[in-house]
Write a structure and sequence with these properties.
Blueprint (H helix, E strand, L loop, with lengths): L1 H11 L7 H13 L13 H4 L4 H10 L15 H11 L11 H7 L1 E2 L18 E6 L4 E6 L4 E7 L9 E2 L5 E5 L4 E6 L4 E7 L3 E7 L5 E8 L2 E6 L5 E6 L10 E7 L4 E6 L4 E6 L29 E5 L6 E4 L5 E5 L5 E5 L4 E5 L12 E5 L2 E7 L5 E6 L5 E6 L7 E2 L6 E5 L10 E5 L4 E6 L7 E6 L5 E6 L4 E7 L5 E7 L2 E6 H5 L8
Antiparallel strand pairs: 1-8, 2-3, 2-33, 3-4, 5-6, 6-7, 7-8, 9-10, 10-11, 11-12, 13-14, 14-15, 15-16, 17-18, 18-19, 19-20, 21-22, 22-23, 23-24, 25-26, 26-27, 27-28, 29-30, 30-31, 31-32
The chain binds heme D.
Keywords: Heme, Iron, Metal-binding, Signal
Protein name: Cytochrome C oxidase Cbb3
GO molecular function, one term: electron transfer activity
Length: 510
């Protein structure tokens, strides 16, 4: 009787609701990995999710993501569980995620040894190829820039971001995913050469002008990871922190070719780092060296070690002047400054307002002066600055805030978008570099987000993304804006011309 009563009580008791952690273990762990660090599917850490609103995450869990293996869970999770799981994913894990040198080394994989004899068919100009990042289903397309046809389409790691970087001969492309994967891709054989996971969240990569090194800047953990560019073998990991041990995420790392160095901007600590890869730069320090000899001299402080310029504000993005002596840096709160890399000192504030996107800046000559122009993520304008006087020359109004700006030595026009605008995200604006006036506004696909232009090697055509799923890669005549071709793609984002990149065309990002 006693036993019978107990069974009845158990049956009557409401089932214990599963905790979000248990839901994760049951439904998500196999694909998203233990510790939410990612496996065959992306990491689900707050840093990985910070571009999504909670409602968007709930919707993803409910209905899945088209063109990916992410299925919807509406049939297995109720609305309360979906909400609780979302909130839990947005919190840092109880145990801080770790990704150290041993993890990096263990993740390293060589897929194919490049054949030194490999060549593209003679009919294809290897320097007029484009690499197109398709975010809709995480693929990379290789496009022949003479015939405008796709030569290869390969899957990539989840959420590539930032400009792919090329080896100096243009044969290899280095890609970084937000989830920390760096991949080396061979354009001649259209195969992945090697991959390595350098972090759980990565900002971007740069390739040294001598082709020997790839430097990855990370936000989780806060490190810089140096890789051998030939096969991506990890060489060293530098913790990013100031002399007092305050750690910092990396905002961006770029190659400063004439200086034989990488320059690194930091998001949380007011410092700018320069890391020389010139073997003649001085003695090799065995460990991380934090050098505070600000303004002391012009000598380099060592090979593959950071030397530090102390600033009075952090940098989210930056741009080099053509001499590579000066850095134009900006923070997302709208402060912009000029820094002299040789004397390691901030010189002046730059007269920019809004939220300049200096990483998308271009330079050009006008009436014997070198000008720099960059979009503004908030303002619906292009800011133009004289690089000799550091004075603002013009603010060119566009239909709305945009992300990217491009030009080419051969064309009088600079092309920009308004993709951050509600009403004008389908417009492309052409600015005359001679008059600094808007000459044309194109709307090639009304109602569809259109942005990011790259020129062909000869500057005669532009390739433009209709960033939708499905979307298109449009080819337009660079003078008239007339449509020449359209290639169907899955949310193409950036595209990069080999010649323009390896020759550091003044109209493209570096
Ligand atoms: Fe980017 C480049 C920062 C959001 C697409 N973006 C860069 C670079 C930086 C940067 C520092 C230069 C890296 C390089 O080329 O090596 N991006 C940021 C941000 O801080 C921001 C605003 C917020 C964030 O989420 O990190 C941001 N970026 C986006 C997007 O939402 C875009 C439109 C879509 C996406 O893929 O996430 C986007 N960013 C791009 C692209 C480039 C880029 C296409 C390369 C531009 C180029 O032509 O070189």
């Amino acid at each position: 009787m006693w036993r019978f009563l107990m069974v009845l009580t158990l049956l009557a008791a409401p089932a214990q609701a599963a905790t979000p952690e248990q839901l994760y273990q049951q439904h998500c762990l196999t694909c998203h990995g233990s510790g939410r660090m990612g496996a065959m599917a992306p990491a689900l850490l707050p840093q990985s999710l910070d571009r999504l609103r909670p409602q968007q995450i709930e919707q993803l869990i409910r209905s899945g993501r088209t063109a990916t293996q992410m299925a919807g869970f509406a049939d297995r999770l109720n609305e309360d569980e979906i909400r609780a799981l979302t909130q839990w994913l947005l919190q840092p894990p109880a145990q801080a995620p770790k990704w150290d040198a041993a993890d990096i080394t263990a993740s390293h994989v060589i897929h194919h040894q490049p054949d030194p004899q490999a060549r593209l068919p003679a009919s294809i100009d290897p320097l007029n190829l484009f690499v197109v990042v398709e975010a809709g289903d995480h693929h990379l397309s290789v496009v022949d820039g003479d015939r405008f046809r796709v030569l290869a389409r390969v899957p990539t790691r989840y959420a590539l971001h930032g400009g792919p970087k090329f080896s100096p001969d243009g044969r290899f492309v280095y890609l970084a995913s937000r989830d920390g994967w760096v991949s080396q891709f061979d354009l001649y054989t259209q195969q992945m050469v090697a991959e390595v996971r350098v972090a759980l969240n990565t900002r971007n990569v740069a390739v040294s002008s001598d082709g020997r090194w790839v430097l990855a800047g990370n936000t989780l953990p806060e490190t810089l990871v140096l890789l051998d560019a030939n096969g991506l073998r990890p060489v060293r990991t530098l913790p990013v922190c100031d002399a007092r041990g305050n750690t910092s995420r990396v905002s961006a790392v770029y190659d400063a070719a004439p200086r034989n160095s990488f320059v690194v901007a930091l998001k949380d600590v007011p410092e700018l780092w320069e890391i020389s890869y010139d073997p003649k730069a001085g003695k090799i320090y065995p460990a991380f060296v934090h050098d505070y000899k600000m303004g002391e001299g012009f000598a380099l402080d060592g090979y593959l070690n950071p030397r530090v310029t102390a600033l009075d504000g952090v940098l989210d993005d930056f741009f080099f002047d053509p001499s590579y002596r000066y850095v134009f840096g900006a923070s997302r709160d709208g402060r912009a400054q000029v820094i002299n890399l040789d004397i390691r000192r901030k010189l002046v504030d730059l007269p920019l307002v809004g939220m300049p996107h200096l990483g998308s800046g271009i330079t050009f000559e006008r009436s014997g002066r070198t000008l720099m122009a960059s979009p503004d993520l908030k303002g619906g304008q292009i800011d133009v600055v004289d690089l000799a006087s550091w004075q603002a020359v013009a603010q060119i109004k566009t239909p709305g805030p945009g992300f990217f700006l491009r030009s080419h030595e051969r064309t009088p026009y600079a092309w920009t978008d308004s993709m951050m605008s509600k009403d004008a995200r389908d417009t492309i604006t052409l600015i005359d570099k001679r008059t600094l006036a808007v000459v044309k506004t194109l709307r090639p696909r009304p109602g569809r987000t259109t942005a990011h232009v790259e020129f062909t090697r000869d500057g005669r055509y532009v390739l433009l993304s209709v960033m939708e799923t499905p979307g298109e890669l449009l080819v337009l005549d660079a003078d008239s804006g007339r449509e020449v071709a359209s290639l169907p793609m899955m949310k193409p984002i950036g595209k990069y011309n080999v010649y323009n990149k390896i020759n550091r065309s003044e109209g493209t990002s570096h």
